[in-house]
């Protein structure tokens, strides 16, 4: 039941939706990396409610503060503690949640586990919990970029039944950020936005798929048995709120290929190794092979809808509950920086672990 | 790069395809559980090559020996060491593998990582590595069954494009074992077997989906953030050889539902809580809600095919390689006990961790 | 190089002497424990500089704030984040430390390790780092007391060559707190205080021994091999600043007994087991036997002295350095709550781990 | 209650005195180290009973077998599994132990913890458990020697009241091995041997001190807070059977120095840093400073004595028990390779962890 993630580059997140704030301690970051709040805040802004017309309007600046672990603009090698204060604490908006469990939210399961819960804004089940991940992920991304030449790009691949075609070899962060739905294909993005607005208008919600490509990972990262690179990525992605599935490379659709069709022929040019196709998704036997890593994460439609639904109260009596107040009809645009952050945390940890044992 | 899995109930596997043998150390098993080799061997027999006409014919008995951790037929609470000797060591069958990398196998990535590999039979990348997992999983399954009333049933849901319809509430181990392809639906099983034999006949291979249902997990197991039950299951499944995807509950197909359609209404009868539907798959916010847990794992077609394929040699020069000798046209029947084992390891570890903090 | 401690009840500390503050995240605390800042602050006050005439006069209130993990005065089972702001940041007092390494301080070794250091007030090598430990330890002590009936009493046993005789079966916290040197024997305490004042007067420092007794631990906590209770206590104590030794039960002086003299006869009265002597110190083979646990920690004299000493500068040129400003002539009175905290962290973690596997 | 030790270079030991055997899995060893049983067996022979006239005469060859993790004489980077079969299984010699608890042995505490124990030869509490540590330690020592130029020498410093004077800068393994008591000072060794023989003759036992020096550790290994190098060494040493104390550098005797006397002046010659004295014992603030590391471990007299002693039976009724059969009057000669092994395991793990984060 740990709130920590990673082995060498290890983060611990804390905080509820309501209370002093939310934060993260990053332990194991290499020393002498230039780092300030300016490296962190942009990703928090991408995660933040209220950033565009299609996301939930909670009004918080989510301003990050680095409390330790840096000196004169560089990391010390000691724990980096970061905090974001909670601001928008209208707990009256949640009064009904004190006595009723929201369907398909973790209200009931928290009670089943702990016998107690902070019902204000969902407490630790709130998506605010991901602030710590995104802040830590921003450091991980910087390390990957500056020390290893690794680049991660996540984007919205599908909303409900609207799917984008994206070139994984060329897609850029700028293209992703060019639309508020974070789909780099402008025309598809427009249709997604229209759908989200329509769905929100009728108090409902939709899910979809976030796809990610990681370019520049050298061959050799990962591990052969339990800590396979794809296994740690799968855990990272399924640890995100509302995620229900993960696949890598050919994934679920690879089932409709035979082995002969699926295998990636290996070639070399002047001792440089590559594969002619990349159905493996850049990882073979748990270890990167130098090709781009790409994977997909399925997110279910958000559980909060503006309709009356059957549920029980805290006395385990049947009742109904109708969502009110904030309503995020589609979590995908805000999930994009979360996916990137988790991918970065997995990769930087594996980079350092590979370095420890094998280099 | 750890070869260990689990926190409280923690296993460490070891062994290559060729060498002294393969095995596992189980640390953290509760004391006073009745245990002997008879509890382990049946699952190893289900995992073993040569068990039926549709799996690879490697001739090894895979007889397990418990070397420590039990006394007079009961566990001591100390580490349980189990070993299976390697027998069928025809390394000449692998001579060509000494100098060439098999496409979509981990031969090249092992070299990229370690700069050395045991090319005989794939060394540690061999599916023999899973013997330790299955042996440890048999203990985990026994603990779950006897101490917690939890039952795990995995089966072959889909081979290539042939999909079975299976009732998750009633499917039994006996039904699964009634067909050699481990699909509980007899008619579909026959078509799957025919397909596998046809594909093998032309030296090719096919993949598919293993589905699992876990019944009897009480509400409250799991954790809210990184160690979500579905996250640990995802990692466990993606750590299996040839797996490429995981989804839980509504999974990838849940994307085509809206929030209103997707939410599971909560009801209570005499204070007993249940949901009217189970799109969550028995886990909400990382914590079990008392409903059956069900998930799917996608396995790619086996990489070894009996055709000439492009690859490189160990000098990084282009060449070709043609599979010969053993050929497993479909890994799914043997993957079933592996999936069960990994699910059991995740669940028993979470059971003990929940007990530690919350009970 | 982890800044975390414990397995199930796991803490992560962060913070430098100068910067935003210092703090700790406690992960794995059981839910529903009543908890507020009032449970934490008293131990921080016992650790704080300026609390009496014989400790260093740094002027900081060290007021703790609980930022997460509690709701309506009870723990939630989620991470408890606690922070103390830094106040007394006279970095000019440390200007010379920017360019010179203090002898027998960790200035040089931090540079050797990280290639960078926060020289202000010692950065993370400052004794302020222990604030997080003491805050977390206060929670651990409360859990031990309320849920397990375990009581920990630490006291100053020896300062330089002045040694107290203390009855381990009866000594109380109140007796310890009755003297500013935290030696429960009033007459010896007076001599210790006089010595410390004399030593401080001549700009020098002295070390000594803190002894601890733990009463009420049931038989069965601990582990048989690496995680022996005494091994984890040893690690905990040697992780404290300035500690140089640890022994338990008969310890180093047990060497002058033969086996026949040293063995503790076991007796039972109405099935209640006890030993006639307790040279084992309450732990046999790594596991508690129900007798009081007692151990000693040796602390070296504080490295900061008001004399000119030979050292090198940051260019690795020979120079000298003279301590100035704050000067703690004896760390022992403030070390007492640190020792208690670390003992409590070890014990509560073992209590929960024992519960997980064996109960 | 883990049977694992280390983070990156991580070992897991298993096995009881009676049963299939004892062994260890070493996970995280770097690849391409030349390794065969010849590198392991010598240390096992130094640990083995029956090696000289002053140790217990149990007749077992303790022949180690490497089961996995090497190929053509070099490590693969995969888990190295090593096993020693049990041979001398005269369980009748232990019949009385089935119903009585030996005083100051872990018989009673194992029952208190697990509710079950293997009473044959002490089961997992047997000193045979250390075989796995010594085998793994031999690999660690080889790595330290070949890759880092680090040398570890342990020796018997004191038996009962007989103490040797040993030059830590020059003492060699050959000198240590030149006497059967493993004290490098020949004259003192003779007196120690005579004492041990005399004590054994009257059915009693004696303890003493093993001292260790580690030469060649570069400045920068270790960590600043919980995983201080001395903290991990302390845990490692207190995890050895019969150990009761640990101190490092000036240790307990440093208490009788003032700060001014205790501080190690830092000097540099041509940018090479050293200290004029080494009261710190080669570690400052948890991190090595490049000076030799030296520490002491106190071992109590062996609990098995040939006299009738008060104890209880397994029904918790008072009775007496008289040791018979094997009797090791002094554990120190055999403890020397155990101490070396544990020191090596700590150091190699810290070397790799330092490499991971800081290099």
Q: Which CATH-level-2 architecture of chain A? A: 4-Layer Sandwich
Domain module tally of chain A = 1
Q: What portion of residues of chain A belong to β-strands? A: 15-25%
Radius of gyration of chain A: 21 Å
Q: What is the typical, i.e. mean, pLDDT of chain A?
A: 95
From the helix content, strand content and strand pairing of chain A, which structural class follows?
Answer: alpha+beta
Largest sheet of chain A: 5 strands, antiparallel
DSSP summary: helix tally of chain A = 8
For this structure, the quaternary state is: homotetramer
Number of strands of chain A: 18
Q: Which stretches of chain A of 5+ consecutive residues score pLDDT under 50?
A: none
The CATH C-level name of chain A is Alpha Beta
Q: End-to-end distance of chain A, in Å?
A: 33 Å
CATH structural fold name of chain A: Chorismate synthase, AroC fold
Q: What shape does the CA trace of chain A take? A: globular
SSE arrangement of chain A, N to C: EEEHEEEEHHEEHHEHEHEEEEEEEH
The strand order across the widest sheet of chain A is 1-2-3-7-4
Q: Biggest interface in this structure? A: A-B, 115 and 115 residues
Keywords:
alpha+beta, 5-stranded antiparallel beta sheet, Chorismate synthase, AroC fold, 18 strands, globular
How would you describe what is shown here?
Four copies of one chain form a homotetramer. By secondary structure, chain A is of the alpha+beta class. Chain A has one domain (4-358): Chorismate synthase, AroC fold (4-Layer Sandwich). Chain A has helices at 37-47, 107-114, 130-148, 173-177, 186-201, 229-238, 259-262, 332-358, and strands at 4-5, 10-15, 21-27, 64-66, 70-71, 74-75, 80-85, 151-159, 162-163, 208-215, 243-248, 266-269, 272-275, 283-284, 287-288, 293-299, 308-312, 318-322. In chain A, β14 (283-284) and β15 form a beta hairpin. In chain A, α6 packs antiparallel against α8 (332-358). The longest helix of chain A has 27 residues, at 332-358. Chains in contact: A-B, A-C, A-D, B-C, B-D, C-D. Chains C and D meet through β1, α2, α6, β11 and α7 of C and β1, α2, α6, β11 and α7 of D.
